[in-house]
Amino acid sequence: MASSSGEGTANGDIEVAGEVFEEMKSIQQELELVEIEIARQRVKLSAPIYEKRRKVFEKIPDFWTTVFVKHPIVGTYLDYNDNEVIRHVKDLIIERDEKDLETYKIILTFSENPYFSNTELVKEFSVDADGTRHIKCSEIVWHEGKDFTKKRKNDEDDEQSLIRWFTETDTDDISWELGKTIRENLYSEAWVHYNYVYDDSDPDGDDEDDLDAYPDELYDEPPPKRNKQDL
After folding, report:
1. Is 214 helix (H, G, I), strand (E, B) or coil?
2. pLDDT tens digits along 153-188
3. Domain 61-230, CATH 3.10.129.10 — does that match?
4. Residue ranges per domain, the chain?
5. What 3-state class would DSSP assign to 196?
6. Which of 33, 76, 181, 217 is 20 to 30 Å from the Cα of 163, by its Cα?
7. Which residues of 72-103 are buried (b: 16+ CB within 10 A; e: fewer)?
């Protein structure tokens, strides 16, 4: 005989009544709201701690340069010119909106350098209520003849470039995930990346080997890397 809370099936399982589905839908929504509130509180409570950490990092020469170069994902976006520019990075700041967790800014500050006059580059990410993505970027004021991103935009064999990514407003998944990787991993786990020691004993090793060796707890799932044809 079937239970009063559902209808019996041939294999003895119970078909859950429609009202139970509605109840569970409501419960799941409540749980999602709890997760959102936890995330908001994490952003709020961690902000002053990150500011304290920032002052410590300022004491370490080339701290952020080292973190960018050593990161197993973001580091693959650095070509020769990027590496030269990254040498002048003074600070990395992530600004979060407690009320809208999908809105954030990635801010890179620079010392005086031979490439551009900007003291900072900003890339802002936001999502509308309907799920539409938006990206705003700083306009780089290049010194004469130093814009290495412009002269290679139509080069099919072009290498990926982090600095050029900072000038792009593309909202494709790869570009979007790179922003999240910088926000949630490179920035949050900066001290781990700074201190991590890679095995350079294999000259034929690739990035996949680095990812396999990297601490598992840093990634739920490694973000995709951009192929040349995706730029």
Report:
1. coil
2. 555 555 689 999 999 999 999 999 999 999 999 999
3. no
4. 16-59, 61-230
5. coil
6. 217
7. bbbbbbbbebbeebbebbbebebebeeeeeee
